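[09:14] KT: can someone run the structure on this one? pasting the chain below
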Amino acid sequence: MAKQDGTSSSNTILPLVGSEFVRPQPLDLTITGDTVKDATGNKVFKVKTPLFGLHNKRILVDPNDSPIVTMKMKVTSKHDRWQVYRGSDLDDKIFTVKRSSTVQLKTRVEVFLKHNQTKESSCDFTIKGRFMKRACTIYVGDSTKIIAQVYEGDERLVATIYPNVDYAFIVTLIFIFDLINNGGTAI
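[09:31] RB: done, C-alpha cells below
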C-alpha cells in the first residue's frame, strides 16, 4: 500500500490526510449532495463551495465546519487536474488528481502523492469508473488491490472504504472524481 512518501508497502496505508481518519475495520459512508454521513446517519463531512474566487475550489469540512482539505482545480489543465491541500493552507499540498488522458470512454483518474518522484509516470492510486453510473473503484497504483468502492443508490452515493484506509482521502477522491465527470460543476 502507498505511504505518504510515495513508496509502497503491502500491509497498510499510512494516513494521507490524518491518522484520525484511519480505522482498522471497513467503513460505509453515504454521500447525498455535499454531505457525507456514516451508517448511523451522523454527519462526517460536508463539502463547501466558496461563493467568491477566481478558481474552482471546494473545501471538505468536519461537522464543526473546520477545514480538512481544500480541493483546487488547475484552470489551465487539459487533464482536469486538481491539487489537494491540507486544511485551508495552500502551501501544504498533499496530492494531485488528474484524468489520465483527455479522451476516455471509461473514466480513469490518477492520483500522485506530494513526494512522488516519478514525474507522474507512475501513479500512487488509480480511480476507474463509469461516468453515467457514478460508480468507481479506487486502487493502489496500477495494481488490482482495491481500497474503496463507490456505487449509486437511491439518489445518493454509497462508499465502502476498506480497513486501514484514510477515509477523508477517499471522500476527497470521490468528490473530485464526480467533479471531473461533470466538468468541475458537480456538488
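[09:33] KT: thanks! The radius of gyration is 15 Å.
[09:34] RB: yep, looked fine to me
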